[in-house]
Design a protein that fits this description.
Blueprint: E1 9-11, H1 20-36, E2 39-43, H2 49-63, H3 67-71, H4 80-83, E3 89-91, E4 108-112, E5 114-115, H5 121-124, E6 130-131, H6 142-170, H7 179-182, E7 186-194, E8 208-211, E9 217-222, E10 228-232, E11 237-240, E12 248-252, H8 254-259, E13 269-271, E14 279-288, E15 293-294, E16 311-312, H9 313-325
Parallel strand pairs: 1-2, 5-6
Antiparallel strand pairs: 2-12, 3-4, 4-7, 7-14, 8-13, 9-12, 9-14, 10-11, 10-13, 15-16
Helix pairs in contact: 1-6, 2-6
Pfam family, one: 2OG-FeII_Oxy
Keywords: Iron, Metal-binding, Oxidoreductase
Family: Belongs to the iron/ascorbate-dependent oxidoreductase family.
C-alpha cells in the first residue's frame, strides 16, 4: 500500500503524560513517519506560541537591516577568537548552492551555535560551531534580540532531547539511550530569510536546492507563507509541507539515517518561494556531542550487519560542511 502523500501531523502530548497506551500509539506513529518519510510535523510540544512569534519577529527585524550592516557580522569574515568559529554569524544571499544550476540559493541566514566561553576546551580546540555567539547591535532592541535567541535555543535543545527519547523508543532502545550523544552538542540555530523569486527567474531558481540535512535531527519553525517541499518516493513527486500554526517540522538527518543502518530516512527537501512575499523560517540542527562515536544501533543491524563504519559526530559534520561550501578557505 502506498504511503500517504504528505508527511503526517502528530500530536506528541502523550509523551508528557502517563497513559502508556497513548505513548505506545505515539511511538508507532513516529516510527512509521521515520521509515516512510523521515519527516513529520509535531503539535502540543510545550513550546509557547509566543516564543515562536518572537523569534520570527526578531529574524525579520535583523534581515530588514541594510546589506552593509548585515555584512559586519559575516561569518566568513570573523575570526575564531571573536566569534567562536567561522560558522557563526551572517551568511549572505546565495552563499550556498545545493543544485549548482544557478548562482546560488535565494536565501540569507544567521547562525548561532552552542554558546561557550573562549576558554572552554571545545572552543580552544576549535571544534565546530562552539563559542560565544555574536548578536547584532543595530536591530531595534539588541537586548530583546539576544534574550529571544537564547531562550529559543534553550527551548529547542529541550525539545530535541524529548524527540530523541521518543526516537529511542521507536528503535526499541531505552529512553535514555541518547544521553551521552546530547551532552554539549554541536547544535546550530539558523534564522533564514527567503526573498520572493522574481516572475522572470530561471525555472531552476530555488530558495534552497534539493538536499538532505547533515546531522541527527532538525526542528524547523516556518512562517505561514509556505514553499517547503518534501520528496515522496512512492508517488515520485514533490509534496508541499503545508505550514500549520504552532507546529514544528521535524526531520531526520544523514547521521541518523546512517546510525539506523538506513532503516530510517533522511529525505530530500527544498524551498521554492513563488508567493511574491518574504518568507522566514528558523531551523534548529541538532548533531550531538562532537566526540561521540556513532555506530550502527543494535536494533538495526539485521542479518547482514552494519553497512557503515563508526564515525565521530565532528568528523561527519565537518565533512558535510566541506561538501556544501567547498574548501575550508572558501566557507563564507
Amino acid at each position: 500500500m502506498p504511503m500517504e502523500e504528505a508527511p503526517p501531523i502528530i500530536d506528541i502530548s502523550a509523551f508528557y503524560g502517563k497513559d502508556d497506551t497513548a505513548k505506545q500509539n505515539l511511538v508507532e506513529q513516529v516510527r512509521s513517519a521515520c521509515t516512510a518519510f523521515g519527516f513529520l510535523q509535531i503539535v502540543n510540544h510545550n513550546v509557547p506560541d509566543s516564543l515562536q512569534e518572537d523569534i520570527l519577529r526578531q529574524s525579520e527585524e535583523f534581515f530588514d537591516l541594510p546589506p552593509e550592516t548585515k555584512e559586519k557580522y559575516n561569518k566568513g569574515g570573523m575570526t575564531p577568537r571573536n566569534i567562536g568559529g567561522r560558522h557563526l554569524g551572517y551568511e549572505r544571499l546565495r552563499a550556498q548552492n545545493f543544485e549548482k544550476k544557478t548562482d546560488g540559493d535565494l536565501k540569507e541566514g544567521y547562525y548561532f551555535g552552542t554558546d561557550l566561553p573562549l576558554d572552554h576546551p571545545y572552543v580552544v580546540a576549535g571544534k565546530l560551531n562552539f563559542g560565544p555567539n555574536k548578536y547584532p547591535e543595530e536591530v531595534p532592541s539588541p537586548e530583546e534580540f539576544k534574550i529571544t535567541v537564547k531562550a529559543y535555543f534553550a527551548s529547542m535543545e529541550r525539545l530535541a532531547h524529548d524527540i530523541l527519547r521518543i526516537l529511542a523508543a521507536t528503535l526499541y532502545l531505552d529512553e535514555n539511550f541518547f544521553n551521552d550523544f546530547i551532552d554539549t552538542p554541536i547544535a546550530t540555530l539558523r534564522l533564514l530569510h527567503y526573498p520572493p523569486q522574481p516572475p522572470t527567474a530561471s525555472p531552476d531558481e530555488r530558495g534552497i536546492g534539493a538536499h538532505t540535512d547533515f546531522g541527527g535531527i532538525t526542528i524547523l519553525l516556518q512562517d505561514m507563507i509556505g514553499g517547503l517541499q518534501v520528496w515522496n518516493r512512492d508517488y515520485d513527486k514533490w509534496v508541499d509541507m503545508e505550514p500549520r500554526k504552532g507546529a514544528f517540522v521535524v526531520n531526520l538527518g544523514n547521521l541518523m539515517m546512517r546510525w539506523t543502518n538506513d532503516n530510517y530516512m533522511s529525505n530530500l527537501h527544498r524551498v521554492i518561494n513563488k508567493t511574491g512575499k518574504e518568507r522566514y523560517s528558523v531551523p534548529f540542527f541538532f548533531s550531538g556531542n562532537p566526540d561521540y562515536v556513532v555506530k550502527c544501533l543494535p536494533s538495526c543491524e539485521g542479518t547482514n550487519g552494519a553497512k557503515y563504519p563508526p564515525v565521530s559526530v565532528e568528523v561527519w559534520i565537518a565533512g558535510r560542511y566541506a561538501d556544501t561550501y567547498g574548501s575550508q578557505d572558501n566557507k563564507n
